[in-house]
Amino acid sequence: MRLTYLAYSFSLTIMYFSFVLLLPVLVALYFHETNAILPFLLTGAFALMISVTIRKLVSGAAKIKSINDIKKSEGLCVVTFSWLFAAILAAIPYTFFGIKPVDAFFEAMSGITATGATVFTHFNYPNALFFWRSFTQWLGGMGIIVLFIAILPQFAIAGRQMFFAEAPGPTEDKFTPRIKNTAAALWKVYAGLTVLDFLLLKFNGMKWIDAVCYAFSSVSGGGLAPSGDSMIGYSFPLLWITIIFMFFAGSSFNLQYKAWIRLNPLVLFRNAEFRAYFNVILVIGILLTASLFFNMNYDLPESITHAFFNISALVSSTGYCSADYTKWDCTSKLLIFAIMLFGSCASSAGGGIKVIRWLLIFKIMKTEMVKILHPKAVCNIKIGNYSVSKDVLDQTLMFVAFYFVILTVSAFLVAIIEQNTTVGLTGAVSAIGNIGPGFGKIGPLGSFEPLHWLTKLILIFDMLIGRLELIPVLVLFRKDFWVLKR
Questions:
Q1: What is the pTM of this model?
Q2: Which residues have CB under 8 Å from 381's CB, separation 6+?
Q3: What is the pLDDT of residue 74?
Q4: How large is the C-alpha radius of gyration of the chain?
Q5: Helix, strand, or coil here: 178?
Q6: Confidence category of residue 157, pLDDT binned at 50, 70, 90
Q7: Cα within 13 Å of Cα(387), Cβ side
Q8: Where are the alpha helices (DSSP H) in 152-299?
Q9: Are 424 and 414 in contact (CB under 8 A)?
Q10: Residue 90: which of 144, 127, 54, 53 has the closest Cα?
Q11: Which one has a higher pLDDT value, 290 or 141?
Q12: pLDDT at 267 over 80
């Protein structure tokens, strides 16, 4: 890896992130929250200073004008450390409001990775801080680097390696000849859904600042609400608006772009992954509706609304709740937990293992059973009309293996530290899947604040590695990765 390229790319992302910190200042000025202006101004200035310092310290970094030949290893490194430092910078404003450094880092990482777990125990904070909290989710939902690729000329060509480092998956998701155009198309869909969500929430009676925060959190699959009650108590129209946008947050934005640009929503249902995603939500939603109706004595409209709201929130890794599902019966809670492991679609704002990987795993299992019965059979695994290469199948198996190993180790460690298996298991599932709430004291109305600081650090690591889908972070632990050149 070339140190000059790393320094230039990293300093560039930090510099532009420093400008983002000015947005909460505008919100603070609008609401006359003078105590909220300085934290963001100082943090922005600090980020800018880091950017300039990096270029000064690394000889030759300031002279680079193009990074078009950036290597894959360099892209992985830039993406991972850009996300890590973005979370560190995002945490600084929280410390000005009495939040401890580890808690601030936890909240910031939860926001930037669109996880939705919170350490807040009260909500007596300025509107500017809630705006920042939701905006970091919105940035992280689609991806910080994807945004910079879309708007910065320096990443027009070189962004390819960073694009796939930030949004790795079983298949490449470049659907235009230039990666910059792909990134821009994704952000058009993402921003369009956000604006539409905001308008519908606003016109259905929500205050504009709350509508902004909920729109940012819903479309990003984030789930950090500006209220300690999440969406409990909101009207059915507001809940169903949010259900729709959480559903699309967990759907492939690539696929949505193709559907909306052709003005043909049926394109969505020609995609195998989308059909599986839709069918799982439908089936689990119906089962949960029946469970709530018969076991919890909800009336039918309540059962349907709460079932599909909470299923959509968890499968898209948004993590909102319309009711405290930790108080539901055992059957309902098992259905809720099962959907937490499922995940959303590839190229979406959601987290988890991803639907496409589950499809591939089941097809691999089916193929292996066929080979046992017919050893000479030639089996070709397909998704839709496309054959899946052996490399992709191997990567999928490796990803799922690593995912459950990290999940198991994290759950084991957290359970020992907290002396609580429920917190250990659901906390780890929630963090690595970027879901947000778990069960028990870290449920949808709970807080991660009482947890031990070691637990928080483990979950912070899980949130980061889950958002970047393991590989970009795991390769950093290989010694041969750190061969630096000028």
A1: 0.91
A2: 360, 363, 364, 367, 387, 388, 393
A3: 72
A4: 22
A5: coil
A6: very low
A7: 5
A8: 159-166, 179-203, 208-219, 236-249, 253-261, 272-295
A9: yes
A10: 144
A11: 290
A12: yes
